[in-house]
Fold:
Amino acid sequence: MANLIETEAALDEELTAPRPVLIDAIRELRSPLVILGAGGKMGPSLAVLARRAAEAAGHELEVIAVSRFSDPAKEEWLRNRGVKTVAADLLDRNSVRGLPDAGEVLYLVGLKFGTEANPSLTWAINTVAPLHVLERYAGRRVVALSTGNVYPLSRIEQGGSREGDPLTPLGEYANAAVARERLFDYGSREAGRQVALIRLNYATDLRYGVPVDLAQKVWHRDPIDLRNGFFNCIWQGDANEMILRAFPLANSPARPWNLTSPGICQVREVAERLGELLGREPVFTGEEAGTALLSNARALCAELGDPPTSVETILERTAHWVQSGGPSLGRPTHFEVRDGRF
Structure:
């Protein structure tokens, strides 16, 4: 069995403990590291991971987390761990102009859920904010988080979309994400800015993620829709580490990189394994389609190595967490969506 996690404090420790490979890499980052959109699911643990890696390396890297910080508890959590926080609205040009100078910029800003209800806000966040950031941080390396949703559904046997495949997705959110990439690429080409675009496909910890969605359905005996029968996922701690190590990959023109596990997970097999761990039989509905939203991450893995946390470890930890009544963010991934309507 994997090293199981019992509490949120232990989970946060797991997510923010740097490996030697990150401690070595963090020495090359210029201070300060400004993390934009740091108040979301990944940002707080990523900021603290960077801070802890710099401390372990003896590198005086100031880490500045920027967000609207609608949740004051996240801001306090960051400050208590040595991360400086700045409240700002990236849709407000004057607010962005007032942000601290940066040695390196990490861009995590995005909006997915609720897109169908308010598509104009999704487009604004994914287009206006990047323009403001590129203007404010001209001449700085940028690692910008994107999403695997920029790809259309692909045939399972293809092994996932690759970085050079056409970006012809369905839905407002996915197309707004393509626009975000195009603006970063435009800024990179026009001004020689070095940018890496990281297309993340389903990070997970124990409070959210596709394995969490499936484990909760198995535990509560809710039907699992098999039509979107395959997915990628990556442990959030591994994703955060690889994002921080991606600065040397920034280039002009901007280059995209897929970030996820090197393999493909089958919903049916994962649910059955979770059923074994939870002692409950999963309930299925529908049949697997021949396509799914999948990414091939071999290019990035060739540069940075495979993510160290196995899918089996994720499943064992997730099953134990759900069975033990561990807290959830209450934000399903909606990975089963096939029409792009989030």
